[in-house]
Amino acid sequence: MTAFLVRRCGFALVTLFAVLTLVFVLVRIVPGDPAQLILGDQASRETIEALRQRLGLDKSLFEQYSVFIAGALRGDWGTSLVTGRPVIGEVLNVLPWTIELTLLSLAIGIVIGVPLGVAAAVRRNRFVDYAARIASLLGLSFPPFVSALLLLLGFAIALRWFPVISGKNATFYEWYQSITLPALNLGLITAAYITRVTRSAMLEVLQEDYVRTARAKGVPWRAVIWRHGLRNALIPVITIVGLYLGILIGNSVLTEIVFSRPGLGKLIVGALNQRDYTMLQGMMVIYTLVVVIVNLLTDLAYGIADPRVKLR
Amino acid sequence: MTDIAAPAKPRSPVRYLLMATLRAFNANKTSWVGLVVFVLVVMLALLAPFLSPHDPLEQNLIARLKGPGDTYWLGTDNFGRDILSRLLYGARISLIIGLASTALALVIGSLIGMLAGWRGGRVDTLIMQVMDVLLAFPSLILGLIIVAMLGPSMINIIVAIALTSIPPFARIARAPTIAMKEREFVEACRSLGYSDARILGLHILPNILPEILVMGSLWLANAIRTEASLAFIGLGVKPPAATWGGMIREGFENILDSSWLVLAPGAAILIVVFALNLLGDGLRDAIDPKLKGEA
């Protein structure tokens, strides 16, 4: 297990550096001078020069790179060009909102997706299977902002069960009111993905010899499905869930915009609209960190779900 | 699929591909449904200038925010522009960006994947690690940042979406290339002294092409959805040009009393993406039953 862990952590570090470098390059391939872009055409030479100095753009590329990497690792991501506050503070302010939304959606997705996928696989080519397949294909065809708008139109505007703008959490009732629709929106889309993977993984596992053996020696069908079948089907499910978290984070941006909910999504769109480059750079660093950590957790989950993985 | 390298008079490859395609379509009726709907949308987009009842950019300030009715079948937007005409023209932008970015990703990704699989060893490890990193990063965020940095023009949007969809194509092309590498017909090609490029292009590519193309239809759905998402965030082709995501963005401001503004383009996106998913999903079932239903 230790060797496995060390190797995975090593890979995570390499990934982190690679993406940080990518972020550095991305921010610098902007056509034209960022300082000029930020200040607009009216700005005087002196103000542009001052901003260039503040952003460190007057230094050599190598110097900029080392400053950037060192800062990123130390948690010093510069100050927002718009608000003047440290980027990391702004990010940490809204991060809990996004994490809460993402985790809750993931939970909804698993609770709906895994049993539905198992049911579809067990009753292959019967009604449940067809219904689950069509529903999940429809679910993953929905652009997240379109489904969010439908929920908003139906439950917040027509039925008035929930507020149109969510983002309060002083009392439990307020919290429940503000998170239900956004979490449901992302959760249902997540469920669509999880249903499909669970179904295909289960279909494969149910054909294995050990499943036949278990049935032959008289293990109840239910136990075969859940203990022998699902346990072995979990690996591909975890892989897809790990990969899907990237998509989920992207989708949360759209959901947060539709429901006017605070979070990384609203922050990044605000930064885009106001051309807040340091903020954008910081956002990318935080996304990278999240992705790397998620990948690491996925790998750990493998190890727990399937002891054979550790040997590889 | 193995008989492509058959000795003596091989069957005409075009005819073979046609028959194989037809078989794949017939295996799953849903792929026909997806294909018909998608072709219909393409036709509507192509014929937009003839079908549109109004100019998509023409503003009629007297008829602002009109609900669906006789003159304006799907209503008008905040500037009094006809929603139906804008939907038809918007289909063009969605399809052009979707098709171009998917084609770009398909070609580059497949080349990378085949190269990695063919070379093996360190080259393979390095390439696939890079692909994994790219794959791990949220593609919408990456696309969003690239478009924001380069500016929201059609070319930049195409490049951004293409970049984020290269890794899946590399993966799908790599695995079968590795499997093919060991087969006798490749061995034979090698002993005949064929160049790597010739073996890869003429002998391996035809064998892995079906899988890549099926992936293409699924990623086309994804590309169209991403384009709409970017436009919704405000990084679409610049207004006043009509884009589906942009229409929803504009309609969102009046959602409380004019819900058709978001419902019509929302339905359009959903129909196209669902049709493409039906198409790709059915075909994938047909060519590889083992992959059935994998997301």
Automatic annotation (TrEMBL), chain A:
Q: Which UniProt keywords apply?
A: Cell membrane, Membrane, Transmembrane, Transmembrane helix, Transport
Q: Which residues form the ABC transmembrane type-1 domain?
A: 95-298
- Give GO cellular component annotations, separated by semicolons: plasma membrane
**Topological type in the membrane:** Multi-pass membrane protein
Gene Ontology MF, one:
dipeptide transmembrane transporter activity
Family annotation (CDD domains): TM_PBP2 (cd06261)
Q: Which residues cross the membrane?
A: 101-122, 134-163, 175-194, 233-254, 284-305
The main location class comes to membrane
Compartments annotated for it: namely: Cell membrane
Similarity-based family: Belongs to the binding-protein-dependent transport system permease family.
Name-wise, this protein is Glutathione ABC transporter permease
Q: Which organism is it from?
A: Candidatus Raskinella chloraquaticus
